[in-house]
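fwd from M.: "can u put these together and see what the complex looks like"

so here's what she sent:
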Amino acid sequence: MKWTSALIPTLKEDPQDAEVISHKLMVRAGLIRKLFSGAYSYLPLGKKVLDKIETIIREEMDAKGSQEVLLPAMHPPELWKTTGRYEVLGGVLIKFKDRHGKELVLGPTHEEVITDLVAGNVRSYKELPLILYQIQTKFRDEPRPRFGVMRSCEFIMKDAYSFDADEAGLDASYKKMFDAYCRIFERCGLPYLAVEADTGIMGGKTSHEFMVPCEAGEDEIVVCPKCKFASSKEIAKCGEVGNQVTRSPSHQVEQLPLKEVATPGVTTVEKVAELLKVKPSDLIKTLLYKADDAVVAVLVRGDYDISETKVKNHLKAAIFELADEKAIHKATGAPVGFSGPVGLKGVRILADNSVKGISNGVTGANKKDAHLVNVNPGRDFDAKEYGDFRVITADDPCPSCGGAVELRHSLEIGHTFKLGTKYSSVLGAKFLDKDGKERPAIMGCYGIGVNRIAAGLIETSSDKDGIIWPASIAPYEVVVIALNVDNEQVKKTSEEIYTQLAAARYDVIYDDRKESAGKKFKDSDLIGFPVQVIVGERNLKNGAVEVKLRKTGERKEVPVKDVTAYFASILKK
Amino acid sequence: MKWTSALIPTLKEDPQDAEVISHKLMVRAGLIRKLFSGAYSYLPLGKKVLDKIETIIREEMDAKGSQEVLLPAMHPPELWKTTGRYEVLGGVLIKFKDRHGKELVLGPTHEEVITDLVAGNVRSYKELPLILYQIQTKFRDEPRPRFGVMRSCEFIMKDAYSFDADEAGLDASYKKMFDAYCRIFERCGLPYLAVEADTGIMGGKTSHEFMVPCEAGEDEIVVCPKCKFASSKEIAKCGEVGNQVTRSPSHQVEQLPLKEVATPGVTTVEKVAELLKVKPSDLIKTLLYKADDAVVAVLVRGDYDISETKVKNHLKAAIFELADEKAIHKATGAPVGFSGPVGLKGVRILADNSVKGISNGVTGANKKDAHLVNVNPGRDFDAKEYGDFRVITADDPCPSCGGAVELRHSLEIGHTFKLGTKYSSVLGAKFLDKDGKERPAIMGCYGIGVNRIAAGLIETSSDKDGIIWPASIAPYEVVVIALNVDNEQVKKTSEEIYTQLAAARYDVIYDDRKESAGKKFKDSDLIGFPVQVIVGERNLKNGAVEVKLRKTGERKEVPVKDVTAYFASILKK
């Protein structure tokens, strides 16, 4: 491609609405443009990056024997109601009615549709195992789309689904997909981690998230540099012993008499602690949740956060969210901010293990503008259900080896789940086993965020000048920069090298613009082509051109006649 | 791919809801499955066909220097309101509100979005010409989805848009796309015709439809076998002289006195003619339309049909549809079925040229249960606007050479339009010309129905046994059929040939199922792989296999060692 024929609108300034580096650079390098918040147009260079990512995905998926399909984006809601996810997904699911008044939804994922498809077309164990995948646009009504293509309402997902006759089959399919994912992310040049994760709205029991650690990532993971343990922060186990015994300041002291104190308008842990001159860890934080149709209270030491994932999984709740003001008032008789376990009736109470070690603690009094002090678990309230309900912190020991852990922001680029029979049993994806007995297929599902691979690469591979692409997913592998197209020899040599490299099947763009050398260097560095061939009068006097590697900045003078051969040594085909 | 690992659910019976051959065979051959009326899942074989079609499209589009992009499926309605098509498309446009109450629409096409994109990123004539395309899922709320993937609510379209600095540029871009389309359809093996067409909701002035003549096609085109004239039936010119002069039975007779006759409950042309013992061609059919905000009456000879396209274009109306009962009553004072031009006040009247030749004709009396006889144009009513407002018939002369024409059902697979500045001027896609003057870009748009290429091929290439694919878009080029996998030599030879053909880069499937020879032949014929390599004990005794061509049924015994070489002679790579 010649630059003068291409649509590559680079920008000098960051877009005003961009907060993260990938968003800024994708816009500035002319890869994407915003249509509206949460929806982006891919310009030619951006589309080429997506294509290269998709090609790598297809190659690795096909290598594992999985087969590509294409399912509709519009779904009948009945399938989603059958699995209960019509309610669970709630506002994220985009719904509309057609001209005949029939409701349709736009697929944010395809477990329902693929299971229904397999239900109608697979009958015998002989037709299993089966792994089907697609690369397709998904739709989500995001509450707060942000960070460019990282969190958008419309995105490209590679979603795969495995169907097996037994658990051993699922394990084998899961391993195939896990291995394919590792290969895909490696080939895309991503520094990724596979971490243990929650199964969330998918259901099932085993799950891994593929994470790219980066500041802009919205998820936090916990990693142990010593034993390489890595996990989603929400599900990493927190030990029962340790911190609360050694650190709770009021442990093993005399239990003082319970007392109500006035705390007018003071509701947060920090402000209550300040007012009452105690530490946040002396508080028993009490939050009320709606779990399906019930209200539950969850207690945790004031300096910790409740892991909603752990609580939700413990309760096996489909819908789990913070109770609203009305429900809190109904349950406690008080406004938000004054809830506590003492005297709380008719509400199931779950207490994190960290609460056990608190003596003479502080809680809400279930009364407006009042808290209780000298609260002692066991004496003042009876929490029958203790468990691990909190989010791990950087001060906790590694759940695997006991060493020190680190928390890291990261971007989820892939997710794998062992689903079991959650979908197949209710949607009738059953098969006859060797003994002629009907059984539901054992399923797995496997997703990759295609756009997020591009964003994740940029988040982890850029410098002050722009993006640094690996050759595998760069918009072009090579740019031939003619420093001065008005010079006949420069022009002729540039065109020759461009033609030769293209003939040798390198993906090459020729910067034939009548622009200054400075502008050309800036644009190529910004877009981040891995290799630049710089053709200028000075080097041509020696019969040579300059080859620059974007990543290292390394430059080398290469004789014109050797350029194509030289490329074989720096770019694998 | 080995058949036993593949998902190929062939069916013996036609699906009950299928009316046309492509729908029946796509389901039976295991290419597609219905999710709901108007939405189909593509199974692995169907997806492979789509991929091959898309690859051909990309190659030909790229060869013309056009660049691929990817635009969002969800659009802000404001863009559609700016061009006026929010109203024009009406119910076809799928609309919904997001969680914040903001309306979004699903794109049935992308003129608005691409023009807005170019408006923001092109500034100078130096950046033109530009042709951008995408291959993407489109959404339409079809009033009556039918014929499998031929008319569905969700389909894959290749849509391209050209931007030029002047008319000559548009002509050049249009020609590039026209030529690319011819190449694409040829390579896909389609017997297509490029016909002159209406510009319809796109606007603009020149337009061609690419049509595949077939019984199941919903469009009708008119073709002249003599001079090769081909046109959409709706817009083909009907001569003023000729049929009405020579064939109108009551021409040049004495004008009789106007008379009202009772026609209780008789409203159709046929029934009125029967009751009054005249010919349909003696009637002046009068239909009332809503053209934007006005009501107009259109007259045509009773045996002809009004071309709504011609009338709409004549009126330059954005919205043009039959008036409803209420509007008819308001305009004529009578119910539907009794409209006529005599005494019709306050309504613009357009009369087709065929009405000129009618003497002593019959029309509605604008009065319930009454018609007028002996109606003479000029004497009894004054139609100031005569013109060509009817649909051509098989009895009309060729508009080009005057010879005999034929009407043919056909399926639209592509459409090209010269748009001019309709979109660029209102959406601000302007550039500075050589003199520094700001001007709107001159646009063209070009669409291909990807799924329809598959359907159109099957409509025109099948026999009683199934589909007959050309190698270019077949799900696999070759099937290796092992007649009896329990025979070691058959199995070994089949695997060897399969491996060799795959290594030689033929797209090959190996039927390794433990099924009867009959079942295997039936399935391969049904799916329609172009070449079958049949490996059986009998031929193996001579060291040979049988190669069968699906299209001709031709069979040839080929020595095992020569199979790959033989393929080079029958399949082009």
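replying to her w this: Chain A touches chain B through 54 residues (CB under 8 Å).
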